[in-house]
Amino acid sequence: MRDIAVFSGSAHPELAAEVCAELGVALQPSRVTRFANDCLEVQLLANCRERDVYLIQPLVAPVQEHLVELLLMIDAARGASAGRVTVVMPHYAYARSDKKDAPRISIGARLMADLMVAAGADRVLTMTLHSPQVHGFFSIPVDHLHALRELARHFASSDLSNTVVVSPDLGNAKEAATFARMLGTGVAAGAKQRFADDRVAITSVIGDIDGRDVIVLDDEIAKGSTIIELVRVLRQQGVKSVRVACTHGLFADGALERIGQLDEVQEIVCTNTVPIPAQQRAGHEDVLTVLSIAPALAEAMRRIHDGESVSALFTQDEPITGQSLF
Questions:
Q1: Does 287 share its domain with 300?
Q2: What whole-number distance in Å separates Cα of residue 256 and Cα of residue 45?
Q3: How many domains does the chain have?
C-alpha cells in the first residue's frame, strides 16, 4: 500500500492510529496553526502528489472547529495534487439536520456535504448516519458502513434465549430488526414522540417484552433522554433486565452517569467512532464497554484503495456465529 497516505485531524487521533495499525501503514504528520485573528491553517507534512489520501476526522464537539479543520485538510490535499481525497468521517454530527421541519430553518446536513465537495473531497466513508437519506445529500460517492456486526458479536457470546431487541422508535426499527436477525432474537419498538421543546415521550412498546431481557439499540446517545424515557416504560411493562447498545456514544451533559444509575441497566455498549475522554469514563468502567470499529474502517479503506466492493462487507441477514468479519 505504498500509494496510500493517511492523515488525522485533531478530533480523534487515537482512532486514526488504530486504523493505520490495522492497515500496516504509518499515520502521516500534519500541523494545525491558529493565528492571532483566530483563523486556522492546516499543513500536511507528507507528500500527497498522486497518492490516495485519507483524512480521518469525525465531526464531534467542538463540531464547528473540527469541521473547518477538515475542510482545510481537504483543501490542502487537493492543493498538493493528491490523486484522490477520501474523507473518513465515522460520525457526521450534522446528519440530524436532514429536513425542513419548521419554517425558515437551514438543512445543515446538505450544506456541510456541499462544503466538503467544494473543498475538494472525492469520496466519503462514514458510519451509521442518523438519517440514511443524508447519504443522498453528497454529490460524490459515499460508503455508508454500520457497526451492527461489531455490536452483535459482543452480545452473541451471552445467553440470548430470553432476549428481545428493542428500538426506541419506529424510525430505527429496520436496523433493530436486522440486529435481531443477527442475534436470533425477537424485536420490538417504542412509540416515541418528540416535542418542540426537545422533550421525549414514549407511550408504549410494541412487542412482547414482559419478563424478557432487553437489548435497546439506537444509532447514537447524546443527552440520553430517549433511553431514560424508554427504560421507564420498559420498567412499567415488566422487563427483566436492560442492556443498551449504540454506535455513537456522545454522552453529552452527563448522559452516561444518568443512564448508568438506572437499576435496570446492566451494560452500555458503544463503539469508538467518537472519543470518550478518560474523565468521562471514570467511575463507569463496570457498566461501559467500548468496541473498536478500526478494523471495519481499515478494511473499507483497503477495499476502496484496491477498487473492491465495500458493500460486500455486509451480509445483513446472516446470523452471528462468532466468525471473523473479513
A1: no
A2: 38
A3: 2
The beta-carbon contacts of 253-257 under 8 Å, at least 24 apart in sequence, are 253/223, 255/221, 255/222, 255/223, 255/224, 255/227, 256/224, 256/280, 256/281, 256/284, 256/288, 257/283, 257/284
Determine the structural domain holding residue 160 and report its residue range: 148-291
Same domain, 169 and 118: no
Catalytic member of 100, 174, 192, 240 = 192
Any domain includes 61 = yes
How many other β-carbons are positioned within 10 Å of the β-carbon of residue 218? Answer: 25
Q: Is the domain of 210 the same as that of 300?
A: no
- Residue 174 annotated among the catalytic residues of the structure: no
- What predicted TM-score, i.e. pTM, was given to this entire model? 0.93
Whole-angstrom Cα distance, residue 107 to residue 119?
A: 19
Which single residue is written with the C-alpha cell 460517492? 141
Location of C-alpha cell 469508538: 272
Q: Specify the DSSP element, H or E, that contains 151.
A: helix 148-156
> What is the CATH classification number for the domain harbouring 244?
3.40.50.2020
In Å, how far are 97, 250, 258 from 255, measured between CA atoms? 21, 9, 5
Q: Report the b/e string of 290-317 with b at 16+ CB within 10 A.
A: ebbbbbbbbbbbbbbbeeeebeebbeee
Same domain, 129 and 44: yes
Whether residue 62 lies inside any domain: the answer is yes
- 64 with 182, same domain? no
Evaluate whether 53 touches 1 at the Cβ level (below 8 Å): no
User: Do both 185 and 75 map to the same domain?
Assistant: no
Cis peptide before 275 (omega within 30 of 0): no
Tens of pLDDT, residue by residue over 10-39, are: 999 999 999 999 999 999 999 999 999 999
pLDDT digits (tens, 9 = 90+) for 139-192: 999 999 999 999 999 999 999 999 999 999 988 899 999 999 999 999 999 988
Q: Are residues 252 and 309 in the same domain?
A: no
